[in-house]
Specification:
Largest sheet: none
Order of helices and strands: HHHH
Oligomer: single chain
Structural class: mainly alpha
Shape: globular
Number of helices: 4
Length: 65
């Protein structure tokens, strides 16, 4: 069984704060998927969490992926 990610440790934000941030991002962006294109590897919530983690810890994108 896969252990859930500890978003608070990785990002410095609570799960509620991340949810609020993801909701604000969703309100601003349009659909970024191209018709007939590949589905996203990560959903919006995880994508937002990864960007926050990258900004906070300055790790490489390869490691974050």
């Amino acid at each position: 069984m896969e252990e859930p990610l500890r978003y608070e440790t990785l990002t410095g934000l609570s799960r509620g704060q991340l949810a609020e941030l993801a909701a604000r991002v969703r309100a601003v962006i349009t659909d970024v998927a191209r018709p007939g294109g590949r589905p996203a590897a990560a959903g919006l919530f995880r994508s937002v969490a990864m960007v926050v983690m990258l900004m906070r810890t300055n790790i490489t994108q390869e490691l974050a992926g």
